[in-house]
Amino acid sequence: MTKELYMKKLSFYKCEKLLYISIFTLGLLVSCNITDKYQKQSAENWNKDILNFEQLDKNEKDPDNGILFAGSSSIRLWSTLKEDVSPYPVIQRGFGGSKFSDLAVYAKDIIYPHEFRALVIFEANDITGDVSDKSPQEVAKLFRYIVRTVRIKYPAKPVFVIEITPTPSRWHVWPKIRQANQLLKEVCRKMPSTYFIETSSAYLNKDGEPRSELFIRDRLHQNHDGYKIWGNLVRQRLDEVFNKVPRNN
To answer: pTM for this one?
Structure first.
């Protein structure tokens, strides 16, 4: 090999290396900036709730091997959570009508103070039929960011996301929500120790529409019967992963 050819190859390898470094750095920057546009609104909506969580974290001792449930009002209102997922001990951190974007902003504040066996996430307010709705792709991107944030401190802890429930009040945007669910499921397939909890079929009747008897008057939040179904599905999925039980589907 001539010196001239050697120098050309060396220059090519240097450029290639720089290209990979640039792509990697850009990826990091994009990941870091994904929550920037949501910071202000999330702080206005949830700063008080996060301060309350901080106080709870100081005053309450987490159970050993607890399952941390984080997410929106469906988690916060789950008054029978402890009984519904028994024998798994639980840590409950639901806040208002939060979104994936809010959990992404506050992931470290909500999740990092705890030692847990697994994390279970449910968010359902990013797609509601409003003009400010996120795209299904943005929902998946935010979930991916949350998992990566979790992995900084907990590289091997199982992370579960519960499928966004088909509800009577948001049935008109179900096609878009269903697309978001499919993308969330795909994220779980690609990220290690990340699992999707399928629930929608249990909430649809024989005509393929939401079972209204499982929801309270607002047609959005579940009643006791709905939560019992949720609890069974979550517990079964935890059993499958922890006990490595093979799935039928």
So the answer is: 0.86
